[in-house]
Amino acid sequence: MGASYTAVGWNRQKKNYDWLIAVFCLGYLGIFISITLLFNEQATFETLLLRSTSTLAILLLHVILAIGPLCRINTKFLPLLYNRRHLGVTMFSLALVHGCFGIFQFHALGNTNAVVSLFSSNTNYNSLAAFPFQALGFFALLIFFLMAITSHDFWLHNLSPKVWKTLHMFVYLGYLLVILHVMLGVIQFEKNPLFVLILSIGSCTLVVLHLTAAFKEKKLDDRLFALQQNGFVYVCNSDEIEDSRAKIFCIDKERIAVYRHENKLYAIHNVCKHQGGPLGEGKILDGCITCPWHGYQYLPQNGQSPPPFKEKVNTYNLKVIKNKVWLNPVPLAEGTERPGVTIM
Amino acid sequence: MIMKQNNDFYIGWMDKAPASYSRHIKKVIILLACLVLIAALILSLQQRKFSTASFEFGQLTEITGTYQQAPVPAVKVKTDQDVFGNSTYLTIPLVGYGKFGAEGIISSLEKEHNTPLNGKEVVLKGTLLYSDGKTLLQVDKNDNPLVSINKPLLKTLTTRQDLGFVEVKGEIIDPKCYFGVMKPGHGKPHRDCAIRCIEGGMDPVFYVRNDKGEANYYLIAGADGRKINDQLKDYIAEPVSLKAKAVQIDDWTVLYLDGNTSIKRLGGLSWFKQQDNSISCSPR
Amino acid sequence: MIKGLRSRHRQIWMVWAILLPAGILLAWLAIPDQQPIRLLQSPVISPLPEIVQSGSLPDYSINLRSNRTRSEWQLEWFNKKVLQVPSAVVYQVNNKNGSFNPVNAKLIGRIEAQGDYWFPVPMDSSINKPLNLVLYDFIHNKIIDSIQLKQK
Questions:
Q1: Which residues of B touch C89 (CB under 8 A)?
Q2: Using CB atoms, which residue from C30, C38, C89 is nearest to B210?
Q3: Whether domain B160-265 has CATH 2.40.50
């Protein structure tokens, strides 16, 4: 929640996270290269570089894409989500080494500009076996590049969250392009069914994780609230909400979090202004609703971030009648003061 | 539904994660470490065996032999006489620097020395590349490749044998990458580079294998001896069948193609693929 | 995450649930197989019936063959691995342990691609002693290997 621009807001968790990324990546590269050389002295530096960086990048991509749905299924994975962008930038850096070196290796020192050659050498777009797989890799790399250079919160604010998020949703297209790049490229030569099995397991795991999380969330979204009175909807009993915690309800278009704090109830929009985190899955710390994703905070009585921060979310009208909590799902303007409703 | 009592809450900017999160993440880290180790082992060990082709990078060798222009620019090195008093040629095709053929360099050497080189004994200096009984020489103008030119030979030892009109199945490759520079130097991952090399004037070679995996290599030329590199672009680095007139010229067989009507793609969808040895397999 | 984004994620992954396995499967099916052929070669010499001497090294197996009347001799050379030298010619030498000079040795033939070779060998008095062979790279002027065959 920096008030001014800093490249990376370092803290102990981020440092530990990055150390682990470095150790795992260097460990992987070391093992892959050593084993290949141990069994095959004829391996060349170029091929080792291309293969070690690409296989590690794909492994990282699978881990990165698994983090989101894992956190929806079990919040204990949240520490992996916190610094996920560093994983993403690392993956892009490896892919960039692979891509740039590949372009040089296969296209440079010829009679055509290397990048032009990438698109003009093989033009068999109508054949599966002969498909220009390098073009697929190029576009995947382009997507990851745009994501990496806009990974800082600076771009989130300046591009607007909607544009930023739309851009970053392209990671899924990037993933599909990478899988096809591998299958229509190196697998056409390596042919080892074990590689295909590994890739299939990876992609199936991601599909299962994402669809499991998706349908779990859909169940919450589809819940019907039948009891309505004068614009208010009965959502739950007041004793169902833990102190300093919330319950989330999806009514009409959006989710609303109802928090309990010092024997009062407050209702705010569930979506954090930072990166859309679920405020209702957070906790009240030092009097502030704290987002579980990156720790952004909001005051429960008005949905505003404590000064000097400027983020604001919508608040909602609540009433408690004989222990029953009634919520008006029409949002009030962002930052509207709404004193808590006392629980009898 | 009454929520369970749960005081643990994770925020990244706090110094330490709550105990339950810590315990869980430690297990995840161990799992990821195992995943990294297993992935590195499996992916490295299951790679296909690398070619043993050699490119003597940084090492120049002088080759003495007769320069021939057709069917491909090459130096023909005479062996000693065998037990029956016969000599044969080791034909060393020439390639240029980078992804180029040798014609450009030979042409500039001929202009520089004001003499055609075809049929003359020459000493050429270049970088050798070789594999599986075939040898090539990279000539680069920066290496001052033409050491000397001698007089033309009075008598050539070249033997020619017409093998008739044949249909062969194999893969069109660029010889420089296959026989030395790249690993792999053939197949789909290498396709774009092979196209670039052949379009740069490198003389294409046809790579065939028998059912024991033993390979042979044939030079490809146009029916009237001219280059047909431009016409091969869409057929490089994949299984094709060629219909051509085959002629054995010394230690190389040349396939004379009549344009791209002689080439047909092989393929189709299939479940089972022939496997090659992985790097951890012991050699035959 | 807002509701619209959740729906978008669900839609994408439902489509990916079809496209990913379909793409992987089709790409696998499309992998071309190298088709083995009968290689174009000059008529192969048939091996003579009897093995008189033999020897082997990790990369080669060698037999000296003859007919029953010992009027014809043949050196059979199995090149088991791909050559990693620019040239490889087989010389017969008199003495296994002496220094090698191609001028004083008898050139039998040249080995090229991985495969099997049969070289006719003229009969002379040295044929009754174990044959000493040297595999020589005349481009680099280096001995690749040497072997003494043993009587069968």
A1: 79-80
A2: C38
A3: yes
Cβ–Cβ contacts within 10 Å for residue C86, how many? 25
Q: How is residue B7 written in tokens?
A: 């005081």
Q: Are A282 and A291 in contact (CB under 8 A)?
A: yes
B24: nearest CB among A76, A186, A292: A76
Residues in a beta bridge with A285: A288
What pLDDT tens digit does each residue of chain A (344 aa) get? Answer: 444 556 667 788 888 999 999 999 999 999 999 999 999 988 999 999 999 999 999 999 999 999 999 999 998 999 999 889 999 999 999 999 999 999 999 999 999 999 999 999 999 998 888 999 999 999 999 999 999 999 988 888 788 888 999 999 999 999 999 999 999 999 999 989 999 999 999 999 999 999 999 999 998 888 888 888 888 999 999 999 999 999 999 987 789 999 999 999 999 999 998 888 899 999 999 999 999 888 899 999 999 999 888 899 999 999 999 899 999 999 999 999 998 999 87
Instruction: List, in order, residues 6 or more apart from A257 with CB less than 8 Å away.
Output: A246, A247, A248, A267, A268, A269, A270, A278, A279, A280, A289
Domains of chain A: 12-220 (no CATH), 228-342 (2.102.10.10)
* Among the partner residues A11, A27, A240, nearest to B3 by beta-carbon distance: A240
Tell me, what amino acid is at C95? N
Which has the closest alpha carbon to A81: A89, A72, A90?
A72
* CB atoms B274 and C33 under 8 Å: yes
For domain B54-152, which CATH number applies: 1.20.120, 2.40.50, 1.25.10, 2.40.160?
A: 2.40.50
Tokens 């881990």 -> residue: A63
β strands within A230-308, DSSP E: 232-237, 246-251, 254-261, 264-269, 283-285, 288-290, 297-298
Give me the helix-helix angle, A161-169 and C3-30, nearest 10°: 20
β-pair type (C73-79, A254-261) = unpaired
Q: How far apart are CA B256 and CA B242, in angstroms?
A: 10
Backbone angle region of B58, left / alpha / beta, with phi > 0 → left and psi within -120 to 50 → alpha: left
Domain ranges within chain B, ordered by starting residue? 54-152, 160-265
State how far the alpha carbon of A131 is from the alpha carbons of A118, A120, A136, A142, in Å.
12, 12, 9, 19
ipTM of the complex: 0.91
Q: How far is residue A43's CA from residue A38's CA, in Å, rounded to a whole number?
A: 10
Q: Would you call A129 and C19 a contact, using CB atoms and an 8 Å cutoff?
A: no
Distance (Å, rounded) from C-alpha B280 to C-alpha A103?
29
CATH of domain C50-151: 2.60.40
Residue C14 phi/psi, 5-degree rounding, is -70, -40
Residues of B in contact with C101 (CB under 8 A): none
pTM of the model: 0.91
Both tokens assigned to B125: 């200096």
- Give the pair of three-digit tokens for residue C2: 């807002």
Nearest to B138 by CA among B195, B73, B221: B73
